[in-house]
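Weekly modeling sync, notes
Attendees: S.R. (lead), two postdocs, one rotation student

Agenda item 3: backlog of single-chain predictions. S.R. asked that every request posted to the team notebook include the full sequence so nobody has to chase files. The rotation student volunteered to paste the first one in as an example of the format we agreed on. Action items at the bottom.

Example entry:
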Amino acid sequence: MTKNEVEELMRDGVFPFDTKSKVTLIETPISFILLKGTYAYKIKKNITLSFLDFSTSKKRKHYCYEELRLNKRLAKETYLDVLPIVKANKQWQIKSKSTTALEYAVRMKRIDTSLQLDLQLKKKRVNKKPIQKIAQQIAAFHLAEKTLKPNYDPFFLSREFADIRSFQPTIKKIVGEDHFNLVEQSIHLSDAIVFLLQDVIKARVTDGFFKDCHGDLHSKNIFLTSPPTIFDCIEFKTEFREIDVLNEIAFLCMDLESSGHTNLSTAFLKTYLKETGYSFNKNEELLFHYFKAYRACIRAKVAAIGLSQDQTDKKSISEVKKYSEAMADYLIKIVARI
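Predicted structure, as returned to the notebook:
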C-alpha cells in the first residue's frame, strides 16, 4: 500500500475491531503502523532495499507470517495474527478472517508507546533493575535456542558495514561532508579489523555461539512492561538474525552507551554473562567492541534511509550524526588496542 492508500484506510476504511476508536499512524522506513483501540496493525511498505525485498504482495504476506512466528518467541502475548486487507466498493477493509487479499497486516496487542525503553531513558526513568530483567530474558532466550554452525564468512560483517556507502550521497548532501568522510574512514577501519579478527569470528562459530537471535535488539524495540516486552525482531533476512550472541547483545549495549547510560550497559552485560555462564577473552572483547561499531553503523544507515525518504527530518539528521560518530569512536579505540 502507498501512504495515500494507508491514509484512505485510516480515514474511510473498515477495521474489524474497536471500530469507533481513533486511528493514529506511526511511519518507519519500512512499515506503516496503525494504532486503533487496543490493537496495532503493521503493514509492510512496498519497498526494495539492499537488505530487504518487500516488492510484491506475496513477499509481504510471507514476511508478515515470518514476523508473527519469530516474534512469538519473545512476545507471545503481543503478536496475535496476520489479517488480510481488501478493497471492496472503493473502500479499504481489514478483514478478521482469511480471504483473497491485496495486502496484509500483522495484528498486535497495543502497548502504551510511552513505555518504550528509549523514551524512558530520555526521561531518566530507568535504573538497573529493568535492564537486568531484560538481560535475564535475553540470556534465557539464547540458551533455549539451538546452536547453529553455518559455513560463515567473517567478511559478511565488513560487507554489510560497507553497505552504508550506498547512502553516502544522502549523507554528504544533507548531513555534511565531515560525516560523509567519517563514514568512509570507518568503512576502511572496519575492513581492516574484520581481516585481523577473522579467525576469532570463525572460532566463535565452531565454539557454538551462533544462535537464531532477535537480530534488532535496541531500546526502541523494548517496552518496559512487567515483565519487559521485547518485540520487532528481524524477519526479512535470516543472516541478520542467525548471528553470534555477542553481536546480539552488543546492539543494546551500544544503544545504551551512545545515549549516555554506560552504567546500564555494564549492568546488562554483567547480568547476561552471569545468567549464561559465558565469558570472553581479550580478542573476543575486541570483537565485542567491533560489534558495537557495526550496530552503530546499522543505526546510522537506518537513519539515512529515513533521511532519503524525508530530507527535512531533523531526527534522522541527528541520528546519522550520533551513530556515525559512535561507530567511528568504537573503531578508533579498537585500533588503539590491537
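Discussion: group reviewed the output briefly. The chain has two domains: 3-110, 117-337.
Action items: rotation student to repeat for the remaining queue; S.R. to check formatting next week.
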